[in-house]
From TrEMBL, chain A:
ATP binds at D434, K435, T436, E684, F726, K750, R789, T869, G870, D871, R968, K974, N997, D998. Residues 29-40 have a biased composition (Basic residues). Residues 1020-1265 form the P-type ATPase C-terminal domain. It is a multi-pass membrane protein. This is Phospholipid-transporting ATPase. It comes from Dicentrarchus labrax (European seabass).
From TrEMBL, chain B:
It comes from Dicentrarchus labrax (European seabass). This is Cell cycle control protein. Keywords: Cell membrane, Cytoplasmic vesicle, Disulfide bond, Glycoprotein, Golgi apparatus, Lipid transport, Membrane, Transmembrane, Transmembrane helix, Transport. InterPro entries: CDC50/LEM3_fam. It comes from the Eukaryota.
Length: 1346, 367
C-alpha cells in the first residue's frame, strides 16, 4: 500500500520569509483572487467526468485523448533497446571513431586485422555500456511498476462507491477519494474536503522541499455543499490550461450545467506527489494524469557534466589523434618511397593487389595510410572511457561507504548524484555557500526579546540550551544509560524536564538503531528548541497584564486604561502569536496512528482518526461537527468546553514534572504542548512557540479568523481582516485584525528592523515612544552583534474611518486589472505607516557543528569561500564572524550603494585597499593588508556590481579580499555571482546550499552540493552531491576530492603512456618492414592487450591508490592545492609521458631487435616477446607510480601476468591452422623453452624504466612535491607526526597568506609556536565600528570593522 | 519521478519501524566499518627517494654485470662463418649466374665458391642460407597463404583462401601451395665440399631432416590424407616454381608435398628483412674429429633464386650453436651496459642521498 503514513521530520529549512522559489510571484498570486481572463480555446484542456461516459467506452469519452496515469520513465522497450541504445552511444564521438575503424577493416585493400576480430573490442565496449544502461533502465522499470501499482480510491459508477484501483488505472476525469497521509496519484482538482473550512492541507516537500503545510481550497462552487460530495451528481465541465510544468500556476474555470462559471486557481489543485495532511478525507477530480502532471513535467533527467580533468583529457585525446595521424602519414610516405625505390622491378615479396593489378606507390601509400590508422588505433585508448567510468563508479561507491560522511542522526550519508565529476571535488577553488541551513542549523531558537524598551535576557533559557547541548554531547559518549534521567536535579522548570526526557528518548532510540525511531527522536529533540523557558520578569508582566485585562473585561472597563507598558507587553505577544501564517496542527493526527496499525480499511482509519483527534482542535471540530453547515462559524466557547473535558495522557508530567507553574489549575498548558505549528519560515514558528511559553498560544487559524489563548482571558477570536504577506522588498508582513477586547482595528506588523524603524511614528508624538525606539535600537544592535536574527514588532491602531478609507483603496487595488501588484504594494505601504514600536526579538540560528573548523581548514586548503545569503547584513556579518569566515583582525569593506553612481566609485575603491593602512588602526603591517580584507556587499549593491561595466572591477576587488559576504541577495543574484566568478576567473566553483533559493546557484556551479539533512529536497535534486552536514564538505573535498583527482589524473596519464608505448613498438617496426603496415605482434594480443592483459592493475590502482592518508590530508589542508593547481596532470606531463613512452618503446623494440638480429627467428616468434616485454614494462611502470600496495594490487598484477601467459599458451595450442595470418601454433611454448626469452624479459623492463625510476628517486629527494612530503609524514610514527603538524600548522596555516610556500612545513619557525587566539567577541567589536566615508559626494560608504 | 520514489522509500522504512522495540529490525544505512570499504586496507607504501631506491640500483648492477659477462663469453665461443654468394661483384664466381638469371630461366646455373675455415667447428654445425633486403615481413606477403591448404584440407586444396590472391589459381586450376610466400620459395641448392690436403673434394653430408619445428612438420603441415600428392591432383604448381610440390625432394619421398622441410622453413616468414633460415645440419661424427676441420672448402651453388632485382643479398652461413642460440654478442653487452649504468646511477644516488636526503630521518624535519 502506498506510502501512507510518513512520519516526516519537519525541519525548518527556509530562510525567513523566503518561502517559494519566487516569493514575490507566489504571494502575489495568492493575494489576487481575481478571475483570470479566459484562456484561448485551443490552448485549453476540457475535462468531463468519466462517470457520464462510463458506458461509452473509449470512442465518445471526451477525455480519451489525455494521457492516463501510467508512468513510464524507462528509456527503452524490448524492441527499441538495441537501436536506441546504440544510437545514444554513438553520440560519444569516440565510439563512432572506433566503429569506423572496425568497419574499415572490412575493406580488403586496407584491412589490417581480421574484420571480425577487429570488431571485438568495440562490441565489447558497447555491450558493457549497453548492459549498464539496461540495468539502470530495468531499475527504473521496476520502480515505475511499483508506483503504477500503488492503490488509490476511485469512484466507480457500477458499484456506486469508491473502489481501490491501481494508480495506473486512474484516468483524467476520475473522482478520487484521498485520505490523510495519502500521496496524490495525479493532479487533482479539489472538490470536497472533510475539513469544515473546506480546506485540505498538503505537504509539498517532495516537490519543492518545503516542509510547511500548504492549504488548498475546495472549488468555490462546491464550497456550500453539504457534507457528502456525490460524484454522480457532478455534471460540470472543467476547462483549464494545457499541462505545463509551472508548479505555481493553474488557471481555468468550471462550467456548471446552469451555465455558471467559476474560476479555478492553483489553490484548488492538488499536485501529484504531495501528501495529504491534517485532512481526513478529500475528493477531487483528476485533471492531469501520468506524464502530464506538473510533478512529472518538472522532472528532468540528470544533467551531464564534464569534469575539468575530462576536458583536459579530451584535449590530450585530440593530441593523440594528431600524433596518430602524423605517424600514419609518416608511414604512408615511407611506404610510398619504399615502393618507389623498386621502380618497375617488382620484388617477389611485394604482393600485387588481390585483383592482380599493380598498385602505384601513391595509391599504396594512400591505402597504407588507412591501414596504419587501424593498426595504430590502440593509441586512442578505446578502453579509456570505459575504465574511467568504472573507476568513477568505484570512487562513488567508496565515498558512499565512508563512515565519516555518515550522519547518524538523520541516518543519511553522502549521496553522489552526479557520477562523473568526482575528481572535480579535488580541484575546487571557490566555494559559494548559502548561510541559513548550510552553515547554520536553521533551527531557530528564540533567545531574547525587548518589549517597550525593556530587555528580557532569558538567561534561564540560555542556560537550558547550553545544558541541553552539553547533555547531548555527553550522552553521545555513554549511550548505555537507557532509563535513568541524569541531571534531573538541575532542571529548573517543567519544560526542561521534558527536554531531558526527550533527549533521553532520543538516545535510547538511537541505540536501537531503528531509523524511524531515530527520526522521530530527532523531531522531539528539535522540539526542545521550541520549549522556551520564559523570563520570569516578563512572565509576571504578562500575567499581571492579562489578569488586569480580564478584570477590565469583567467590569467592562475600556482597555485603554491599561498602563501603556503592560499594554505593549500584551500587544507584543498578540503580534507574535497572530502576525504570521502559521498553521496549527497536532502531532496526534491520524498519520501516526495509521502508521502503527497500518490497516487498509477505511473504517478502521476512521476509527483511528476519531481516537487520534481527541486532543486536536481542528480534527476535533471536524469530526464532531461532521455535516453541519460550514458557514456558521463555530463558537469558541463550545470548543473550549470540549477541550476542557478531554483528558490528555498526563503520565509524563505526573512522573517527572516538577510543580507546574499553573495559575488557574487548568491543564491547558499540557494541552497545548501537543499542538504543533507549521510555519513557512522557522522564525515564525520560533516566535509562536516563544509566545506559547508565555501562555499566549495560537490555537487555530482560519482564513478569516485567528484564535489565540491568553492566560486568564481564555480564548480570543481575532477577526482577520487582511493579511499582507511578506515580500522581499517590503521586508515585513502585517495583519489587520479586529481586536476582540477593544473592538479596535489593529495592524500588527513584524519585519526587519531596518524597515520597521523607518516606519515608526515620528518621535514628536511622545517622549516615551522616543525612548523606546532609542533603547530598542540599542538592544537591536546588541542582538545583531550577538549574531541573533532580529525582528521588530510594531502595531498601529486605526480608526474606523481610516480603515474604511484604506479599505476602499485596497479593494480598488485588489480589483484592478492592470498593475495590480504595484497597486497592492502601494496599498500595503499606505497601511504600514506611523507604527508604534512594541519591541524586538532576537532569534538564534545556531551554527552547525564544526562549521568554523571546516571553514578554517578549507581556507587553508586555498579555497576562497564566499557566502551568499538572503539574510540581512548585520546577521550575515555576525554569523560570518562566528564561523570564522571573517576574522576580527581583518578589515571589512562594506559596500552599500544607493544608486548606479556607485559605478564611478569602484575606481576609487580599487585604490582603497592599498591606501587604507593609514586610516586603519595600528597593528597591521602594510604587506599583509591585501590579504586581510573581507568584503561585505548587499544585494542592491551587488545588482550594480554585476552590471556588465562593473563586473571586472567588482571581481578585482573581490579577489583581493580574503572572504566575500553577499547579503540580501536573491537566488538569481547568487547564480549570477557564481557564473561571473566561474566564467571570468576561469576557476572551479562549488556551490553549497540547502534551499530552493540555492538551486540556481547549485546548477550554475561546476559542482553543486545540496545539504540533505534539512530536507531540502529541491536543492538536493539539483545538486551533484548531497551532504547531510556542512562539515562533511571538509572530508569530501580534502580527502575524497584529492584522492579521486589524483587517482584519476594518474590513471589517465598512465593510459596515454601505456597506449603510446605499445603502439610505438609497431611504429618502430615499420622501418623494418618497408612501412607495409605489418605488425609483429599477433593481432589478438594487439587487440586484447588493452582490454584484458593490462586492464586490471590500472583499475585497481585507479580505484584504491592513496597518495596520502586521509588523516594527513585533513591535518594538512595545504595538500589540496595539489589538485587546485592540477599538479598531477599538467599539459606538459602528457608530453613527458609521451616522450617517456617513446623512449621505453625504443628500448623495448631495439633490445629484442638486436638480440634477434640476423637470426632465423620468424615474425611472430619474434613478436610474442614484445607483448610480454611490453606487459612487464607497463606493469612495472604502474608499480613505480603506485603509492600504496595492498594485496589487491599484488593480486591484480599477478593476475594480469598469469592471464597473459594462460591465454597465450591456450591460444597457441588451440588450433594449428586458425588465426591467419599469424598462425602462432606452439609459439609461446617454444619461447618458454628459450633462455633468450627470459633474458630479454629481465633486461628490457629494467632498461626501459631506469630513467623514470631514477627521476622519481631524485625528485623524491631533491625537490619533493608537497604531496610527497605528506607521504613522508604518513610514514613517521604517529607522535612525531603530530608534533610536526602542530608546529607546521601555525606557520603554514597562518591566514596571512592563503597559499603559503609549502617548504615551510619542513622548517617551521619556532616563533610560530605561540598560537594567537584569534577568537574575538563580536560584541566588543561592534562598539568600535568606524565609519570611513570615501569621497563625500559619492553615494556609497565603506565601513571598516576593526 | 523522484517524488514518488521518495515516498515509497520512506514507506518501506516505516513499515519496518512499526516493530520499533526490536533492535536492528530496520537496516541502518550506516556503512560497514570494514578495512576495504573505509579504504584502510593494510598497504605497503614505498616512498621513492634516493635513500630507499639506491639499494635496488646496486643490486641490479651487481646481478646484471656477471650475467652480461657470461652471455658475452658464451656468445664469443660460438664459431660462425658467412659467405656472400649473390654475385654482385664481377669477381664473384656467381656473377654471371646472377646477371643472367631470372625466375623464367629454365636451365639451372651452377657456380662454386671457395672458402677457408681458419678454425675447426667442433660440435654440430648448422648451415643457413641468409637473405638480406628481402621483406618477408611485408604485410600483404605475410598474409598470402592458406594454412588450411597446407594442413591438407581437401576443400582448401581445391578452393584456396582468398588471401592467396593473386597466387590463388593459375590456368583455371587452384595453385597448391597457394600464395606469395610459397610462390617465392627459396630454391637455390647448396652443397658443401671439403678439400683435404690431397686436393680431393669430399662431400660433406648435409642432413635435411629436423630443420623445421617439430610441431610444424607433424601438426601444422600435412599432406592431403588419402592420396599421396601426385599428378592426379587437379592443382597447379606456383608460377615461380620449376617443379610441383610433390617433387620437391626427389631423394626422399617422405619429404615431399607440404611437409617438405625446406618448404616449411620457408613458410615461417622471417621477422626482419635481413634473416637467415636453417638449411642443413652437419652432424658431428665422432668425438675425436671436429665436424668441420679447418681448411679449404668449396660451396657449390645451383643458382636459381634471383635477388638482385631488389638489391638483395644471398649468403651461406655455417654456425655452431650454444644454449642461448646463435652468435650474438649484443645481449651480453646490453646486460653489461645496463648493469654498469645502474651501478653508476646507484653511486649518483648515494651522493645525492648523503648530500640532500635528510628528510627521510624524522628527527631532521623540524630543523
Amino acid at each position: 500500500k502506498g506510502a501512507v503514513c510518513v512520519n516526516k521530520r519537519k525541519d525548518w529549512r527556509k530562510p525567513l520569509f523566503n518561502t517559494t522559489e519566487d516569493p514575490g510571484m507566489a504571494k502575489a498570486s495568492k493575494v489576487k483572487r481575481q478571475r483570470k481572463k479566459k484562456t484561448k480555446e485551443n490552448k485549453t484542456r476540457t475535462v468531463h467526468a468519466n462517470l457520464l461516459y462510463d458506458n461509452a467506452k473509449g470512442e465518445e469519452n471526451p477525455n480519451r485523448h489525455y494521457a492516463n496515469n501510467k508512468i513510464k520513465t524507462t528509456k527503452y522497450t524490448v524492441l527499441s533497446f538495441l537501436p536506441k541504445n546504440l544510437f545514444e552511444q554513438f553520440h560519444r564521438f569516440a565510439n563512432v571513431y572506433f566503429v569506423f575503424i572496425a568497419l574499415l577493416n572490412f575493406v580488403p585493400v586496407v584491412n589490417a586485422f581480421q574484420p571480425e576480430l577487429a570488431l571485438a573490442p568495440v562490441v565489447f565496449i558497447l555491450s558493457v555500456t549497453a548492459i549498464k544502461d539496461l540495468w539502470e533502465d530495468y531499475r527504473r522499470h521496476r520502480s515505475d511498476k511499483e508506483i503504477n501499482h500503488m492503490d488509490c480510491l476511485v469512484y466507480s459508477r457500477a458499484e456506486r462507491s469508491y473502489v481501490e484501483k491501481y494508480w495506473k488505472e486512474v484516468r483524467v476525469g476520475d473522482f478520487i477519494r484521498l485520505r490523510c497521509n495519502e500521496i496524490l496519484p495525479a493532479d487533482v482538482l479539489l472538490l470536497s474536503s472533510s475539513d469544515p473550512d473546506r480546506l485540505c492541507h498538503i505537504e509539498t516537500a517532495t516537490l519543492d522541499g518545503e516542509t510547511n503545510l500548504k492549504q488548498r481550497q475546495v472549488v468555490r462552487s462546491f464550497f456550500d455543499l453539504d457534507c457528502d460530495f456525490d460524484p454522480i451528481k457532478y455534471n460540470s465541465i472543467i476547462e483549464c490550461e494545457k499541462p505545463n510544468n509551472d508548479l505555481n500556476r493553474f488557471r481555468g474555470y468550471i462550467i456548471h450545467r446552469s451555465g455558471r462559471r467559476d474560476a479555478l486557481y492553483k489553490e484548488n489543485l492538488l499536485l501529484r506527489g504531495c501528501t495529504i495532511r491534517n485532512t481526513e478525507e478529500a475528493v477531487g477530480i483528476v485533471i492531469y494524469a501520468g506524464h502530464e502532471t506538473k510533478a512529472m513535467l518538472n522532472n528532468n533527467g540528470p544533467r551531464y557534466k564534464r569534469s575539468k580533468l575530462e576536458r583536459q583529457m579530451n584535449v590530450d585525446v585530440f593530441w593523440c589523434v594528431i600524433i596518430l595521424l602524423v605517424m600514419c602519414l609518416f608511414a604512408a610516405v615511407g611506404h610510398g618511397l619504399w615502393m618507389f625505390q623498386y621502380g618497375d622491378k617488382r620484388p617477389v615479396f611485394d604482393v600485387l593487389s588481390p585483383d592482380g593489378t599493380d598498385l602505384s606507390p601513391i595509391m599504396s601509400a594512400i591505402y597504407l595510410f588507412l591501414t596504419m590508422i587501424i593498426v595504430f588505433q590502440v593509441l586512442i585508448p578505446i578502453s579509456l572511457f570505459v575504465s574511467i567510468e568504472i573507476v568513477k563508479i568505484c570512487q562513488v561507491y567508496f565515498i558512499h561507504q565512508d563512515m565519516e560522511l555518515y550522519d547518524e542522526e538523520t541516518d543519511s550519508h553522502l549521496q553522489c548524484r552526479a557520477l562523473n565529476i568526482t575528481e572535480d571535488l579535488g580541484q575546487m577553488q571557490y566555494i559559494f555557500s548559502d548561510k541559513t541551513g548550510t552553515l547554520t542549523e536553521n533551527k531557530m531558537v528564540f533567545r531574547r526579546c525587548t518589549v517597550a524598551g525593556v530587555e528580557y535576557s532569558h538567561d534561564a533559557n540560555a542556560r537550558r540550551l547550553a545544558m541541553y547541548q552539553e547533555m547531548d554531547s555527553e550522552e553521545e559518549e555513554c549511550t548505555s544509560h537507557g532509563g535513568t534521567l541524569p541531571r534531573r536535579d538541575s532542571v529548573t522548570s517543567h519544560q526542561s524536564a521534558r527536554v531531558v526526557l526527550r533527549s533521553q528518548s532520543t538516545k535510547s532510540h538511537r541505540r536501537t538503531g531503528s531509523r524511524a525511531e531515530a527520526k522521530r527522536a530527532s523531531i522531539l529533540s528539535k522540539h526542545t528548541a521550541f520549549n522556551i523557558t520564559p523570563d520570569p520578569q516578563l512572565l509576571d508582566k504578562v500575567n499581571e497584564c492579562s489578569s488586569q485585562m480580564d478584570f477590565m473585561r469583567f467590569h467592562s472597563q475600556p482597555m485603554s486604561q491599561l498602563p501603556s507598558d503592560l499594554a505593549d507587553v500584551i500587544d507584543f505577544f498578540i503580534a507574535l502569536t497572530i502576525c504570521n501564517t502559521v498553521v496549527v496542527s497536532s502531532p496526534n493526527q491520524p498519520r501516526q496512528k495509521v502508521q502503527l496499525t497500518s490497516t487498509k480499511s477505511i473504517q478502521s482509519n476512521h476509527l483511528q482518526v476519531n481516537k487520534g483527534s481527541s486532543s486536536s482542535l481542528i480534527t476535533n471540530r471536524s469530526s464532531n461537527k461532521g455535516c453541519s453547515s460550514m458557514l456558521s462559524s463555530p463558537s469558541a466557547e463550545s470548543t473550549l468546553t470540549k477541550l476542557d473535558e478531554e483528558q490528555p495522557p498526563r503520565d509524563l508530567e505526573h512522573n517527572f514534572g516538577p510543580v507546574l507553574p499553573c495559575y488557574d489549575g487548568k491543564a491547558w498548558n499540557l494541552e497545548e504542548g501537543e499542538l504543533r505549528y507549521e510555519a513557512e519560515s522557522p522564525d515564525e514558528a520560533a516566535l509562536v512557540y516563544a509566545a506559547r511559553a508565555y501562555k499566549c498560544s495560537l490555537v487555530g487559524r482560519l482564513p478569516d479568523q485567528v484564535t489565540m489563548e491568553l492566560p486568564h482571558l481564555g480564548k480570543l477570536n481575532f477577526e482577520l481582516l487582511h493579511t499582507l504577506g511578506f515580500d522581499s522588498t517590503r521586508k515585513r508582513m502585517s495583519v489587520v485584525v479586529r481586536h476582540p477586547l477593544t473592538d479596535q482595528i489593529t495592524v500588527y506588523t513584524k519585519g526587519a528592523d531596518s524597515v520597521i524603524m523607518d516606519l515608526i511614528k515620528p518621535p514628536d508624538t511622545g517622549k516615551r515612544q522616543k525612548k523606546i525606539v532609542n533603547r530598542t535600537q540599542n538592544y537591536l544592535n546588541l542582538y545583531a552583534a550577538d549574531g541573533l536574527r532580529t525582528l521588530c514588532i510594531a502595531k498601529k491602531i486605526m480608526s474606523k474611518e481610516q480603515y474604511a478609507c484604506w479599505l476602499q483603496h485596497h479593494l480598488e487595488a485588489e480589483t484592478a486589472i492592470q498593475g495590480r501588484e504595484e497597486l497592492l504594494f502601494e496599498s500595503a505601504l499606505r497601511l504600514e505607516t506611523n507604527l508604534q514600536l512594541l519591541g524586538a526579538t532576537g532569534i538564534e540560528d545556531r551554527l552547525q557543528d564544526g562549521v568554523p573548523e571546516t571553514i578554517a581548514s578549507l581556507r587553508k586548503a586555498g579555497l576562497q569561500i564566499w557566502v551568499l545569503t538572503g539574510d540581512k547584513q548585520e546577521t550575515a556579518v555576525n554569523i560570518a564572524y562566528a564561523c570564522k569566515l571573517l576574522d576580527p583582525e581583518e578589515e571589512i569593506l562594506t559596500l552599500n550603494a544607493d544608486s548606479q553612481a556607485f559605478h564611478s566609485n569602484f575606481t576609487t575603491f580599487e585604490i582603497y585597499p592599498s591606501s587604507s593602512p593609514s586610516s586603519s588602526s595600528s597593528s597591521h603591517t602594510p604587506p599583509f593588508m591585501v590579504h586581510r580584507l573581507g568584503l561585505v556587499i548587499d544585494g542592491r549593491t551587488l545588482a550594480y556590481a554585476l552590471d556588465k561595466s562593473l563586473e571586472d572591477k567588482f571581481l578585482a576587488v573581490a579577489r583581493s579580499c580574503r572572504s566575500v559576504l553577499c547579503c540580501r541577495s536573491t537566488p538569481l543574484q547568487k547564480s549570477m555571482v557564481v557564473k561571473l566568478v566561474r566564467n571570468k576567473l576561469k576557476v572551479m566553483t562549488l556551490a553549497i546550499g540547502d534551499g530552493a533559493n540555492d538551486v540556481s546557484m547549485i546548477q550554475v556551479a561546476d559542482v553543486g552540493v545540496g545539504i540533505s539533512g534539512q530536507e531540502g529536497m529541491q536543492a538536493v535534486m539539483a545538486s551533484d552531491f548531497a551532504l547531510p552536514r556542512f562539515r562533511y564538505l571538509q572530508k569530501l573535498l580534502l580527502v575524497h576530492g584529492h584522492w579521486c583527482y589524483s587517482r584519476l589524473a594518474n590513471m589517465i596519464l598512465y593510459f596515454f603512456y601505456k597506449n603510446a608505448m605499445f603502439v610505438a613498438l609497431i611504429f618502430w617496426y615499420q622501418f623494418y618492414c618497408g612501412f607495409s603496415g605489418s605488425a609483429m605482434i599477433d593481432q589478438w594480443y594487439l587487440i586484447f592487450f588493452n582490454l584484458m592483459f593490462s586492464a586490471f592493475p590500472q583499475l585497481i590502482t585507479g580505484t584504491l591508490d592513496k597518495d596520502v592518508s586521509a588523516e594527513t590530508l585533513q591535518q594538512l589542508p595545504q595538500l589540496y592545492v595539489n589538485g587546485q593547481n592540477s599538479e598531477e596532470y599538467k599539459p606538459y606531463m602528457f608530453w613527458m609521458n609521451m616522450i617517456d613512452a617513446f623512449y621505453q618503446s625504443l628500448v623495448c623494440f631495439f633490445i629484442p631487435y638486436f638480440a634477434y638480429a640476423d637470426s632465423d627467428v620468424d615474425l611472430f616468434t619474434w613478436g610474442t616477446p614484445f607483448t610480454t616485454l611490453a606487459l612487464f614494462t607497463i606493469l612495472v611502470h604502474l608499480g613505480i607510480e603506485t603509492k600504496t600496495w595492498t594485496w589487491m594490487n599484488w593480486l591484480s598484477i599477478a593476475f594480469s601476468i598469469a592471464l597473459f601467459f594462460t591465454v597465450a599458451l591456450c591460444y597457441n595450442a588451440s588450433c594449428p591452422t586458425c588465426y591467419s595470418p599469424s598462425n602462432p601454433y606452439w609459439t609461446m611454448q617454444r619461447l618458454l623453452q628459450d633462455p633468450l626469452f627470459y633474458l630479454l624479459c629481465v633486461i628490457t623492463p629494467v632498461a626501459a624504466l631506469l630513467p623514470r625510476y631514477f627521476y622519481r628517486a631524485c625528485q623524491g629527494t631533491l625537490f619533493p612535491s608537497p604531496v610527497q612530503v605528506g607521504r613522508q609524514l604518513d610514514k613517521l610514527p604517529a607522535e612525531t607526526c603530530r608534533n610536526i603538524l602542530s608546529l607546521s600548522r601555525v606557520k603554514v596555516g597562518s591566514p596571512l597568506s592563503p597559499k603559503p610556500p609549502f617548504l615551510s612545513l619542513a622548517k617551521p619557525s619556532p616563533k610560530g609556536c605561540n598560537i594567537k587566539d584569534q577568537r574575538s567577541f563580536p560584541s566588543s567589536r561592534a562598539s568600535e565600528v568606524l565609519y570611513v566615508l570615501i569621497p563625500a559626494e559619492t553615494c556609497f560608504s565603506a565601513e571598516m570593522y576593526l | 519521478m523522484a517524488t514518488s520514489y521518495n515516498a515509497k522509500e520512506e514507506d518501506g522504512h516505516h513499515s519496518g519501524a512499526s516493530s520499533h522495540g526490536a533492535a536492528g529490525v530496520v537496516k541502518s544505512k550506516k556503512p560497514d566499518n570494514t578495512a576495504f570499504k573505509q579504504q584502510r586496507l593494510p598497504a605497503w607504501q614505498p616512498i621513492l627517494t634516493a635513500g630507499t631506491v639506491l639499494p635496488a640500483f646496486f643490486v641490479i648492477g651487481l646481478i646484471f654485470i656477471p650475467i652480461g659477462i657470461g652471455l658475452y663469453v658464451s656468445s664469443n665461443n660460438i664459431k660462425e662463418f658467412e659467405i656472400d654468394y649473390t654475385g654482385v661483384d664481377i669477381s664473384n664466381p656467381c656473377y654471371s649466374c646472377a646477371k643472367n638469371f631470372s625466375w623464367n630461366s629454365t636451365t639451372p646455373c651452377v657456380c662454386s665458391m671457395n672458402f677457408t675455415l681458419e678454425q675447426p667447428f667442433e660440435s654440430n654445425v648448422f648451415m643457413y642460407y641468409g637473405l638480406s633486403n628481402f621483406y618477408q615481413n611485408h604485410r600483404r606477403y605475410v598474409k598470402s597463404r592458406d594454412d588450411s591448404q597446407l594442413n591438407g584440407d581437401q576443400s582448401a586444396l581445391k578452393n584456396p583462401s582468398k588471401e592467396c590472391e593473386p597466387y590463388r589459381t593459375s590456368d583455371g586450376l587452384p595453385i597448391a601451395p597457394c600464395g606469395a610466400i610459397a610462390n617465392s620459395l627459396f630454391n637455390d641448392t647448396l652443397e658443401l665440399y671439403h678439400i683435404d690436403s690431397n686436393n680431393t673434394r669430399n662431400t660433406i653430408p648435409l642432413v635435411k631432416k629436423g630443420i623445421a619445428w617439430w610441431t610444424d612438420k607433424h601438426v601444422k603441415f600435412r599432406n592431403p590424407g588419402f592420396i599421396k600428392l601426385n599428378k592426379h591432383l587437379c592443382t597447379n604448381k606456383p608460377v615461380n616454381w620449376r617443379k610441383p610440390v610433390y617433387e620437391l625432394d626427389p631423394s626422399d619421398p617422405d619429404n615431399n608435398g607440404f611437409i617438405n622441410e625446406d618448404f616449411i622453413v620457408w613458410m615461417r616468414t622471417a621477422a626482419l628483412p635481413t634473416f637467415r633460415k636453417l638449411y642443413r645440419i652437419i652432424q658431428k661424427k665422432s668425438n675425436t674429429t671436429p665436424t668441420l676441420p679447418s681448411g679449404k672448402y668449396v660451396l657449390e651453388i645451383t643458382y636459381n633464386y634471383p635477388v638482385l632485382s631488389f638489391d638483395g643479398r644471398k649468403r651461406m652461413i655455417l654456425s655452431t650453436i650454444s644454449w642461448m642460440g646463435g652468435k650474438n654478442p649484443f645481449l651480453g653487452i646490453a646486460y653489461i651496459t645496463v648493469g654498469s649504468i645502474c651501478f653508476f646511477l646507484g653511486v649518483v644516488l648515494l651522493i645525492i642521498h648523503h648530500k640532500y636526503d635528510t628528510r627521510s630521518n624524522s628527527a631532521d624535519i623540524p630543523n
